[in-house]
Structure prediction request, 80 residues.
Amino acid sequence: MTEISSPRVGRSRITVLGVQPDSQPFRIVEIDGEFVGEAKSVTDVLQIAAAYGIVVHDLDDPDVVRWVGGDKFTWGPRPR
Prediction:
């Protein structure tokens, strides 16, 4: 049998939290579990990552970026 007995649980270096309500909505960005900035677009996430020496080749790779409360296209409050 070649499968492992438990599923692999990885930890993304970058975590982008859900949209924060504000006149200009933003998402909190954490790197290695620490707050590092606010992002208002995917470009902001990439710039923050680069400032910390992280090159992101694939925003959909859960080993690199974890999106909480929406995906890379979620930058405003959810409609009610």
Notes: The beta strands are 14-20, 26-31, 34-39, 65-67. DSSP finds one helix and four strands in the chain.
